[in-house]
Write a structure and sequence with these properties.
This protein is an alpha+beta fold and 588 residues long. It is 38% helix and 21% strand. It is built from 19 helices and 21 strands. Strands 12, 13, 14, 15, 16, 17, 18 and 21 form an 8-stranded mixed sheet that branches. Strands 3, 4, 5, 6, 7 and 8 form a 6-stranded mixed sheet that branches. The longest helix is centred in the last third of the chain and has 20 residues. The structure holds adenosine monophosphate. The site of adenosine monophosphate has 11 residues, from strand 2.
């Protein structure tokens, strides 16, 4: 398939934000796509080469791309930088430069989607000392044969700046229309996506086997399932209103969620954001097969750091010590853990997500045998507010964050947040002490502080409607020397020369980061703000919402993806809730 078809589709899609128009462009693109490239096109549309859980990262820096453009065009890097600094992005700057070049040379070859994809794949796989030079060679050879439009979109994919604004749901709408003639079939595709986390695979199946293939879509081991999420509630009373008269309550442990895929001796661990994390937990890989009594399974558990002497649970932050590439054996000894099981999604070749909570829990207790290292998450069945209250106290005393409440007769809804699972956290009981999960977008060098740290961070919420990150506050308190160090290590590689186009901030930062990290913050109040962009124009024209006296809680939420951060909607509802509480108080 000619790459120019894809580049033109990208250009059309970039020029609109309207979902219906985007869907139409996608349908037209899929209709021109041969069956054997459909999965590749689907990944490229999302700026990826493979599903996220495979961890194939392109990781090309702007500087390197500039060197490749220079090599291909014969134009000095300085000139390329100047063009780039005029505005736009490097993709468009390259197009301008190559336009000048194509006036003097003529194109020799048509490039295909297959060639671009394979080359990008090779680039992603390169490692080691010679890899920089090889990357430049591969990129410049593609650029040599590309016309300016094609070059723009090769570079955008390489740099990770392709922002078509096509949500997964829009891609699925278009796949349903293009291959089954009926948009309503989207629901079925969504289910297939939720149990595979692989949109390319879903596209491939509908393109080759039609909707029947999707109907028969099967969960596969070592292909992670998108996790079920919980709605939050603020009181025991609200639990009773939403759950009815009998439900399960579990401790909400403050650790890292893990999906464990196991078959014989083979075992793989996926994080909540579906990243492979097996390397960080060699102790789980070694110990779990011994307490497991089935042929194969997909299990869910919460990994929690413990105090080895007392057995007490320790906060999530302790697990950060396990996030390292080297000397992991030392970290395993110094930071012991337990694995606390709470669900089974697949067992002995059969899908378990359709079973009720009750049946799944019974199965879990059959196939996992408890010991010092592996436990079931503490659970009880409750009916009244008092029972919830009592279990809540116990859970907090044991070092957990609160409770998870689960309907007994409901299946596991992969990939969705809903009212079949609720969470009741300690902070939620105090209206203003609510914690927020915010995206780190910028940094400021602290005055008089040590070098090698950011004294203050600029934070953002996630706006689901526009797929952007509007700023909500600066935070400069709550940091310890250790957390400053950790943040510096994590954030430094994420620095960009230019602000990512998904960041919406009027405030200038000393450095901008790729929006990739979520941290937890508490604040005293939410106020209207002339500077910050969260919920802009929603409460009052030209005003956004901001946090007053924000404080970092110490929790770096590496397990969260940025699209999981607190949304503008959530902040609006907290703002309204807080004002209502103040109003009610005045009336008392
Ligand atoms: P939150 O991060 O506040 O949205 O809460 C959801 C997270 O709580 C999950 O992703 C799990 O990591 C964690 N969790 C702790 N205990 C449980 C439990 N019993 N059931 C499900 N998730 C739990």
């Amino acid at each position: 398939m000619q790459y120019s078809i894809l580049a033109e589709a990208f250009e059309n899609m970039e020029s609109t934000r309207k979902r219906l128009e985007l869907t139409q462009h996608l349908v037209e693109l899929f209709e021109k796509t041969p069956q054997d490239v459909i999965s590749k096109i689907t990944y490229l549309l999302q700026g990826k080469l493979r599903p996220d859980f495979e961890g194939v990262e392109l990781g090309v820096a702007e500087k390197l791309a500039m060197r490749a453009i220079s090599k291909s065009s014969g134009i000095a890097i300085k000139k390329i930088e100047d063009e780039y600094n005029k505005g736009g992005d490097l993709g468009h700057a390259a197009a301008k430069i190559l336009e000048q070049k194509t006036q003097t040379t003529f194109l020799v070859e048509n490039i295909t989607v297959e060639r671009v994809y394979e080359t990008l794949f090779k680039i992603a796989r390169l490692e080691g000392s010679k890899s920089q030079d090889m990357k430049i060679k591969y990129i410049s050879s593609l650029l040599n044969d590309a016309n300016p439009l094609e070059a723009t979109y090769i570079l955008k994919i390489l740099l990770g700046t392709l922002r078509l604004g096509v949500a997964e749901n829009t891609v699925m709408d278009a796949l349903a229309i293009a291959y089954s003639g009926n948009k309503e079939n989207r629901k079925m595709l969504e289910h297939a996506y939720n149990v595979s986390s692989d949109l390319g695979k879903v596209a491939q199946i509908i393109a080759t086997e039609g909707i029947k293939g999707i109907e028969e879509f099967k969960i596969e081991l070592f292909n992670p399932i998108r996790p079920m999420l919980a709605d939050r509630v603020k009181s025991e009373n609200e639990v009773i209103e939403k759950m009815g008269n009998k439900f399960a309550i579990e401790y909400k442990l403050d650790g890292e969620r893990v999906q464990i895929h196991i078959e014989g001796d083979k075992i793989e661990l996926f994080s909540r954001s579906l990243e492979k994390i097996s390397n960080y937990y060699p102790d789980i890989i070694e110990k779990i097969p011994k307490i497991f009594e089935a042929e194969n399974a997909i299990l869910e558990a919460e990994i929690v750091a413990i105090n080895e002497n007392t057995g007490d649970f320790l906060p999530f932050q302790e697990l950060m010590h396990r996030r390292r590439k080297y000397k992991i054996e030392k970290a395993v000894k110094e930071y012991p853990i337990t694995v606390n099981f709470f669900d089974v999604l697949y067992c002995n070749g059969k899908n378990c997500t359709e079973l009720s909570y009750h049946e799944r829990r019974k199965k879990l207790e059959k196939i996992v045998k408890e010991n010092e290292f592996a436990k079931y998450i503490p659970m009880t069945i409750a009916e009244t507010e008092n029972e919830i209250e009592e279990f809540f106290e116990n859970s907090i005393n044991a070092g957990s964050e609160g409770l998870m409440l689960k309907m007994l007769d409901k299946p596991y809804q992969a990939g969705s947040r809903g009212s079949h699972w609720l969470k009741l956290k300690r902070e939620y009981r105090n209206e203003l002490g609510d914690s927020l999960d915010l995206v780190v977008i910028g940094g400021f060098f602290g005055k008089g502080r040590r070098t090698g740290s950011y004294g203050t961070l600029l934070l953002a919420t996630y706006d689901e409607n526009t797929d952007t990150f509007p700023s909500i506050c600066k935070v400069g308190t709550g940091f310890t020397d250790e957390s400053l160090d950790q943040l510096y290590q994590i954030l430094n590689p994420k620095i960009t020369i230019k602000k990512n186009p998904r960041i919406n901030s009027e405030m200038e930062a000393d450095v901008w980061f790729e929006p990739e990290l979520v941290i937890e913050v508490v604040a005293s109040e939410i106020t209207l703000s002339p500077i910050h962009k969260t919920a802009i124009n929603e409460i009052r024209k030209d005003a956004g919402l901001a946090l007053r006296f924000p404080k970092f809680t110490g929790k770096i939420r590496v397990e969260k993806i940025v699209e999981d951060a607190s949304t503008d909607e959530e902040v609006i509802s907290l703002y309204k809730g807080q004002n209502k509480a103040a109003h009610d108080k005045n009336l008392m």
